[in-house]
Amino acid sequence: MKTIVIVHHTGIWGGGTKSLIDLCEMLGDDYHVIVCVPKGFPDFAGKISQNGCNAYEFSTHIPMINLYSGRPPLLSVVTFRSILSLGNIKKIGDEILSLKPDVVIFNTLVTAVTARYLAGHVKIICINRETLTSRLEVFLYRKLLDKHLNAIAFLSEYERRKLNFCKAASFVFPDCVKLDALKKQDKSHLREKAGIGVDKYGILFMGGLEKIKGTDVILEAMNFLDERFVLIFAGDMNESKLSKAQLWHDIKYPAYYRFKKRVIQYYYKLKGTSSIYEVGLCDSIDELILMSDIVVFPSTSVHQPRPCIEAGAYRKPVVISDYEETREYFKDKYNALTFIPHDAVDLAQKLLYAIDHREEMRQMGKNNRIMTETKHDFYLCKEKICSLIEKVCDNEDKD
Question: What is the pTM of this model?
Fold first, then answer.
């Protein structure tokens, strides 16, 4: 049985981590899988073990490059730490090799810089889960990684063409959903349990206090909607980050300061009213999707919308920021309504359109299910990644 080592960049539960769990499930039956996780997240390592894989905690910080859509400011502590982390490439590379892998999979482009050290010792695959928005970013990653990777996977064909790696084999490997494991519950029962009236139009937002997810945009949009709407708000709001002391700390990062000021302005108007239902952090969002009428993804930078894919599994329509990078899977008036990024008024108008055109939205939900079935099915994706691993290893045997 071949050993696959997956290098994961975070111990926080989110879209990238859910995709990691999917990857573990895909590979667990046919390979010995070891997931390398950052130090300091013992609970996360336990979750990895529960999904049939072994967890290995790195002894130091994972080398990474702070260049991607929605990244923290270049002049920030995060960027400073990422620069310092590059000094760990040899140490982390040796730790990976000590696990005796046949193939190493970097589960994100930003940590794949260690491939430069591993090249020639082991076969390397990278899954690019980031969206790059500048020519400089594309140039740097291509220059740094193209000749050191055996293969690179992209979430969409658009991203594959954008990076256009020449030496590394490339293919599309989108986020996926296990359609045969979906929950089946009555929406009205879930609404009743949550205290949400059946006459309300449920808008599901999954983003917590994350700037890139557009928290401020959806909160502002709620101010333009009437009492028929309720915002089902998932994710950690963490009000301590909205304190005056924290705002003073953030003032040196103007974009984040303005974001939090806007969140404070609109969040506390909604908090405690019947127009918002807060659920906090969730490992599973299935019940939230079931109880909602529509899923909103108002990202303020290009971001891959995994929640919208999961919405499709449950035949729910979505409202999403209009970016060229996401049009491949979310087509306006087919399986989604798109709106001008950052524009809360336009978002509110699309939600008003949705509530007044229920039958049209039901058809969009059905179309979103078709998109999920044809592009994001777990077993189709499993076949792709396992085939790629065998192809990479077969090339090694021929070498």
Answer: 0.90
